[in-house]
Amino acid sequence: MQVAMVTGAGKGIGREIVRRLATEGMIVYMGARDIARVREQARDLPGEVRPLRLDVTEQEQIEAAAARVTDECGRLDVLVNNAGVMLEWQHTATEVPMELVRRTYEVNVLGAVAVTQAFVPLLRRARPGRVVNVSSPLGSLSLLSDFGTLIAQRSHLAYGSSKAALNAVTLLYAKALVGDGILVNAANPGLVATDLNGGNGGLSVEQGAEVPVRLALLGEDGFTGRFVGDWRRGTPVEEPEASPDALVPW
Fold first, then answer.
1. How far apart are CA 88 and CA 160, in angstroms?
2. Which of 47, 60, 93, 181 has the lowest CB atom count within 10 Å?
3. What is the CA radius of gyration of the chain?
4. pTM of whole model > 0.90?
């Protein structure tokens, strides 16, 4: 039986990713800061879901999580770095407080790096190991450089730049781990209505989980170092032919 771990899994897209992977027959560790929430939700999910206290900004909790998975399963097939925050809704790019920038990077970038570093030894025991970083086209330098796109017009300095950093982290890990048979990719779930954006999105959490789950289920012949998910999904300008399999420009 394959083993997966999902961070930021207490609600929204993360919870749906857990449900989908458990439905696929995996043992799924449901990581979140609020252990009471995930314990309650795990009872309503199919398959074998194991609640896990995990704040990705707390190194002790990360190490404890890795030790638990090691003791109980001995390997990890799938890591989904889903935990993320958006804290600057009321601020422009030139006015966002530095405290919000720091907090955003602590979760969206440093948290993903710390969790991945801790679980690489377990991922090396899987064939293939898969890492899925839940990102956003708001971090695409190609789209941000085209001032006419909706992406460039959204002034989310902390969130957008943190996702650009996460995209770079994805590529660097993909290169570093290719020899270990570990596939590392970034997923754009689309504009999903969640607490992160105040419920303002054109897609459901079920639709948002499609791309991350697809990347989590890649086989040994799967690709690595890609950013998948059409950036127009769930936006007011989404075109009928837009495909969630499309590559997002880095």
1. 11
2. 60
3. 17
4. yes
